[in-house]
Design brief:
Length: about 150
């Protein structure tokens, strides 16, 4: 929303788009003079990943965390790449190297947080009994950071 534009730009974004009031695809194509973008990270659902696929430039790539875009033969007409980020797959695989690599990445990320080199953006800490309310709040998509459940 417009109230979050300054917040988004504080991370280095040149533009902020209010998905509730603007046609995201049309606005991106306007900003890029019809070229589209080189990379998209789809982190919401398949519908937003579909939007991301529509704004990819020639040889652009989309990586999805939550929901692949609809894939058709024509999806790849512009030499586009689609990647699914599935870190959780290492946990259920028999690939011990992948599991250890995931653990190493987690250790490195935790160290960066401890050293205050990255901000985990924790908005609030809740107790076990408040998890249903926390999940409901996340579903509204109006949180700016993470809601962390403290299990004591």
């Amino acid at each position: 929303s417009e109230r979050n534009h300054a917040f988004v730009k504080s991370f280095g974004a040149a533009h902020a788009i209010d998905y509730g009031k603007e046609d995201v695809v049309a606005r991106i194509m306007e900003i890029t003079n019809g070229r589209g973008v080189d990379r998209v990270l789809g982190a919401v659902d398949s519908a937003t990943s579909d939007q991301g696929g529509k704004v990819l430039a020639f040889r652009g790539g989309i990586a999805t965390v939550a929901g692949l875009p609809t894939l058709k033969e024509s999806t790849f007409d512009d030499a586009k790449s689609v990647h699914r980020v599935a870190y959780g797959g290492a946990h259920t695989s028999d690939n011990r190297d992948a599991q250890l690599d995931l653990a190493r990445m987690a250790d490195e990320m935790i160290a960066l947080v401890v050293e205050k080199k990255i901000d985990p953006m924790v908005q609030q800490v809740i107790g076990l009994e408040d998890i249903p309310d926390g999940l409901a709040q996340l579903e509204t998509r109006h949180t700016r950071g993470k809601i962390v459940a403290e299990l004591v």
